[in-house]
Amino acid sequence: MPAGRAILITGASSGIGRGIALAYAEPGARLNLLGRNADRLAAVEAAALAKGADVETSEADVRDRLHMAAWLAEADRRRGFDLVIANAGITTGLAPGQMMEDPDAVRAVLATNLFGVLNTIEPLIASMLSRGQGHIAIIGSMAALRPLSYAPAYSAAKAAVHAYADALRGRLEPHGLHVSLVIPGFVKTPLNDSISARKPWEMSENDAARVIRRGLDRKKAIIAFPRRLYAIAVLGRLLPPRFVDWTMDRFTVSVPETAERVDDLKG
């Protein structure tokens, strides 16, 4: 990693975001870490500082468009971000026998997983283009490749950010701004631990972060892992839809409803 590169990571207080922050924490790295849990964010900051990184943290809610725009403009003016990783996300879903997600939970997931990505990236595109270089990374999901019947809103939000990343890449890369889409499978995080299901080839957050950093350092367009699960997900898009529906219905999965609500946003 070039010395002094400035990196922004949202959702850095736990899970994949925490793993990525610590994967990049080293002498010369300048990390800006955003999260909503002050105690967990402070713990990640301490761990990154211990590894020699220059760290700034901020409690921020990616759903707050105006606050994010103002904060990002000021932070980018000081830091000049080289790599922006839009990672913050939540999940919600259905229990066995439950037919419909709560409409408020659906909108909470879209607010964080879709609009939170937009609120992170949009304010920085113009300044990164003006510098003629930079790298945007968006954390997607295997659920975007073949939507999950037990997590419709989560699948929809991730499918939207996949399309957004693909479109941005085609538009921005000719102007020097790289775009990467990260497609992880099951990663052992607090978010994933809440889901009751078989989790084939589940990885630790640290292992996942190493794969992500390796792919980002190579500026790969798609960073999908584990490869076997990615191959199955891609195959699922090619098979007859009702056959895939029938197959997936053979598994018992329970995804808890998020307690998040759009009205929780202050200001």
Keywords:
267 residues, alpha/beta, Rossmann fold, seven-stranded parallel sheet, two-stranded parallel ribbon, 9 helices
Structural overview:
The protein is α/β, with parallel strands linked by helices. The protein has a single domain (6-264), classed as 3-Layer(aba) Sandwich (Rossmann fold). The chain has helices at residues 15-24, 38-50, 65-79, 103-131, 152-172, 190-193, 205-217, 227-238, 241-248, and strands spanning 6-9, 30-35, 54-59, 83-86, 134-139, 177-184, 187-188, 203-204, 222-225. The strands form two sheets. It has a seven-stranded parallel sheet, sandwiched between helices. The longest helix is centred in the middle third of the chain and has 29 residues, at 103-131. The chain is globular. The termini are far apart. The model has no long low-confidence stretch (mean pLDDT 95).
Brief overview, please?
With 267 residues, the protein is α/β, with parallel strands linked by helices.
What's the order of the H and E elements?
EHEHEHEHEHEEHEHEHH
Helix share, percent: 40-55%
Mean pLDDT: 95
Number of domains: 1
- The first-level CATH class name: Alpha Beta
How many angstroms does the end-to-end distance come to? 38 Å
Strand and helix layout:
Elements: E1 6-9, H1 15-24, E2 30-35, H2 38-50, E3 54-59, H3 65-79, E4 83-86, H4 103-131, E5 134-139, H5 152-172, E6 177-184, E7 187-188, H6 190-193, E8 203-204, H7 205-217, E9 222-225, H8 227-238, H9 241-248
Parallel strand pairs: 1-2, 1-4, 2-3, 4-5, 5-6, 6-9, 7-8
